[in-house]
Amino acid sequence: MIPKKIINFIPDSLSENLDKNGLALIEFLDEFNLNILNDILSIWYNKYPEKAKEIILDSLGKYLEAEIKSNDSIKQKRIKIVNAVKRHKLRGTWENDIKIRIDSITGKSSSLVKNTTVFESDDSILISDNNIDNDFYNTLGTDGTNEFGIYLPGGEINSDVNILINKIKQELLDSVPAYFVIYLGYTNDDGNFISLGVI
């Protein structure tokens, strides 16, 4: 516990013989202790950017990736921290994060799609038991001999689309939750989703 009045904690022999230098020291120590106490109590406000002490704003901004610059005013720092908290709360959500990022790169209005691809006679099989008696560990595409395969729509991706997909991948890398797999692509005239990339 920080003493509130230093005079109560000094020996009687000293307190009875105080000169003006002694009184100045006691006033200084009282003020020092009061500042320390206020600093300790202000820790409660560290979670409120609008009330937090100025000294922690840079550290808080760095922790939250608020992009605080050295020439930002205190008010700008507080606003950037509040906005960073909002961004983190919405990070990885479709409407408030992912869609905005994709649309800003493509200039189009992106949307979520359900698995709409219609497989006609093609199927897929994945076997992961490592048993050498199995003929198929994994098949990709039909060759006319095997009855299994994955149907992949043909055609090469043009280089501009490839650059766009790579930009989207880079932009979303930190936003997509680790347990999600995101397929980037488009829906063709038949209503089938054509995948162009995976994150």
Description:
The chain has six helices and two strands; from the N terminus they run ααααααββ. By secondary structure, it is mostly helical. The chain has two domains: 1-47, no CATH class; 94-198, no CATH class. Strand 1 (183-187) and strand 2 (193-198) form a beta hairpin. The longest helix is centred in the N-terminal third of the chain and has 23 residues, at 20-42. The two termini are 54 Å apart. Residues 118-130, 134-142 and 149-155 have low confidence and may be disordered.
The rough form would be described as rod-shaped
Helicity level:
25-40%
What is the N-to-C succession of helices and strands? Answer: HHHHHHEE
Number of strands: 2
Fraction of residues in β-strands = 5-15%
Task: Look at the structure and give the mean pLDDT.
Answer: 77
Question: Biggest β-sheet: count, sense, barrel?
Answer: 2 strands, antiparallel
Measured between the Cα atoms of the first and last residue, the distance is 54 Å
Give Rg in angstroms.
32 Å
Unreliable residue stretches: 118-130, 134-142, 149-155
Structural class: mainly alpha
Q: Tally the helices: what do you get?
A: 6
Query: What is the number of independent domains?
Result: 2
- Order of strands, main sheet, comes to 1-2
